[in-house]
Every structure is written in structure tokens, then in C-alpha cells.
Amino acid sequence: MSHAKLSRRAILAGTAAVSATAIAATPTRASWTTPAVVDATSPDPIFAEIEKYRATNTAFIALCHHEESLENAGHELIAAPSDFRTPEMVATVTASAAARERLSSTSPTSLTSLAAYIDFVQANSDDEQFVFDGEEETLAFVCSLLRAVRGIVAEQAVRS
After folding, report:
1. Domain hosting residue 86, numbered range
2. How many structural domains are present in the chain?
């Protein structure tokens, strides 16, 4: 079986098209916020994962700046055992990667959160770098979108 290699731009364009189609097929805006799989009083899990990703990414950027300023001031950074990075950088990168992996595999539960998720991914990606790292995270992202659309469509079918 041959696997076509998808570009990040094609993935984002496709997800936007899927969202637009799902939104156009939705009979009322009121039904967007009550997913069938989550209690109506529960916040959508995608928003918590977006915030965790933002927090770990912000911590990573701040540590990069901090370590760079230390090096520029002539301080020698001590590497972690069996690594070229500092122990703090290893921990920060590990936390950031874990948050990104959780984000890639979390499915939105409403059309509103699906649109917000795709907007977030698009805003944090460009022609040179996609927010998700490698094929595994990209596939997890695509699968999370598929689960979201299936859940939303199922909810709409129950409501009809």
C-alpha cells in the first residue's frame, strides 16, 4: 500500500474545509455547545490542553532566553548527564513535548471548540513549521479531528 505524504498546508486546508462543511450542515447554533459525549456543564477538554501547551511552550521560550543570557554573560551551563542540555532544559522540553502530544490527541466536543482548535493550530503553524512534531503527532491530530466530527455528527443525528 502506498502512503501519500501530506503537506501541513494541505492538512490545515482540509481541516478548515471539514469544519466549514460540518458547520454548514448544523441546523442551529444552539446545538454547538452541548456535545453528546460530555456533560453539558463540563468545559471542552481541548481548551485545557491548549492552555497546557501554551504554558509549557512559554516556559520553554523563557528558559531558552534565560540560558542564552547566562551564556552571553559568560556563565558556563552544566549539561545534564548523557545530554548536551541543562537538566532544566531537559525537563522543560520533556514537559512541552508531553503537552503537545496530549493536545494532538485530544478531540474537541463541539463545533465551536473544533473551530477554535483548528484556528489555534493554524495560528501556531506556518509554511516552515507545523505545531505538531512529526508524523505521529500529525496523524494523532487528524484522528482527533475525525473523532470530533464523528461525535458532533452523531450528536446532531440524536437531536434530529
Report:
1. 44-159
2. 1
Nearest to 107 by CA among 143, 54, 148: 148
CA distance 24 to 126: 27
Q: Which residues, in sequence order, are CB contacts of 69 under 8 Å at separation 6+?
A: none
**Three-state SS across 87-150?**
HHHHHHHHHHHHHHHHHHHCCCCCHHHHHHHHHHHHHCCCCCCCCCCHHHHHHHHHHHHHHHHH
The total of other beta-carbon atoms located within 10 Å of residue 124's CB is 15
Handedness of CA 104, 108, 113, 118 (dihedral sign): positive
CA pair distance 129, 119, nearest whole angstrom: 15
Query: Can you tell me the distance from the alpha carbon of 138 to that of 132, in angstroms, rounded to the nearest whole number?
Result: 6
* pLDDT tens digits, 109-144: 999 999 999 999 999 998 889 999 899 999 999 999
pLDDT tens profile 100-112: 999 999 999 999 9
Which residues are CB-contacts of 141 (< 8 A; sequence separation ≥ 6)? 11, 104, 105, 121, 132
Q: How many CB atoms lie within 10 A of CB 58?
A: 11
